[in-house]
Inverse folding.
């Protein structure tokens, strides 16, 4: 067993152990833990243990077996990458827990502040509505609070007859007096009702509770924002993300940090999924110095055949070049090599 093979086996054991621990923590953390959550954990560990034997065997397979092996190894690497992405995401979340808690407190403070602001806005709308009702009631009372126009009482008329004289316009006078009295009474009732409406509207307006004190909420929100800024500035993950985004850490937004986290998790998970499998395949390949492959020997033979033959024109007679003899044409009279 060479050193690379031993290192790949050790790295694979470490990967399986770390993924198992991380998956166990994710599955059984919190009050909603369930034993059924261990099923994906066992599946990932079982499939992960097949990667190295398959990678060791892959270079010695034939074409069909190699194709199936590559397909299976790719699927196992995808599973490993998914599990590693969950593990690395959990790692980043654990390292940024202080920032998450500070942001959670800020969100709660902002929600409380918004709730108080909405209550203040509703109170302002209620006061505006009640004020409009009071103004309307007062305006109505002002409009009706004026002397009532009464009908003039007609003068009497004296009528004479066998029994003597009498006031024959008394009935008309009585009706006019009655109508005026009814008008006075109706006006008084309307004025009284208008006064009641004004009093009720003023009572409802005065019964509106006082508005919330926004100063304490504003101070709480400001303190939460300072806590978030301090937590981000002191967190190494946010400092790295700010360096990658080339922006100050205090100006780094949550969206920019999530972008860095996204690509970091993908890169780390991909490296974890491919590194041990590729190392196992490389360690299983034959050593070129000790036993060259058939392909390498064939290429060397082709190179030897294509090597150019250097012919010396000043030497007559046959020339032996490696395993071939080359005869050059010569002049019989002089013995010189013909051009």
């Amino acid at each position: 067993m060479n050193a690379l093979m031993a290192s790949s086996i050790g790295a694979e054991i470490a990967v399986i152990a770390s993924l198992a621990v991380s998956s166990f923590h994710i599955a059984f953390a919190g009050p909603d833990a369930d034993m059924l959550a261990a099923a994906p954990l066992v599946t990932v560990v079982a499939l992960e243990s097949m990667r190295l034997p398959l990678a060791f065997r892959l270079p010695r397979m034939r074409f069909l077996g190699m194709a199936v092996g590559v397909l299976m190894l790719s699927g196992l690497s995808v599973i490993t990458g998914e599990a590693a992405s969950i593990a690395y995401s959990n790692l980043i979340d654990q390292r940024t827990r202080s920032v998450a808690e500070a942001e959670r407190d800020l969100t709660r403070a902002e929600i409380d502040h918004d709730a108080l602001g909405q209550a203040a806005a509703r109170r302002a709308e209620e006061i505006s509505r009640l004020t409009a009702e009071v103004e309307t009631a007062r305006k109505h009372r002002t409009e009706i609070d004026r002397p009532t126009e009464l009908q003039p009482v007609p003068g009497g008329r004296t009528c004479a007859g066998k029994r003597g004289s009498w006031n024959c316009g008394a009935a008309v006078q009585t009706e006019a007096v009655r109508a005026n009295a009814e008008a006075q009474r109706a006006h008084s009732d309307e004025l009284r009702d208008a006064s009641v409406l004004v009093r009720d509207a003023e009572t409802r307006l005065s019964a509106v509770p006082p508005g919330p004190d926004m100063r304490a909420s504003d101070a709480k929100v400001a303190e939460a924002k300072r806590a978030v800024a301090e937590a981000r500035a002191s967190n190494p993950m946010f400092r790295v993300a700010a360096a990658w985004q080339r922006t100050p850490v205090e100006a780094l937004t949550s969206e920019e940090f999530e972008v860095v986290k996204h690509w970091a998790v993908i890169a780390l998970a991909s490296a974890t999924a491919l590194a041990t499998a590729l190392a196992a395949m490389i360690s299983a390949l034959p050593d070129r110095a000790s036993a060259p492959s058939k392909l390498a020997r064939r290429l060397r033979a082709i190179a030897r055949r294509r090597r150019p033959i250097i012919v010396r024109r000043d030497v007559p007679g046959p020339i032996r070049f490696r395993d071939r003899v080359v005869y050059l044409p010569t002049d019989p009279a002089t013995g010189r090599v013909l051009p």
Q: What stands out?
A: Strands lie at 158-161, 164-167, 319-321, 324-326.
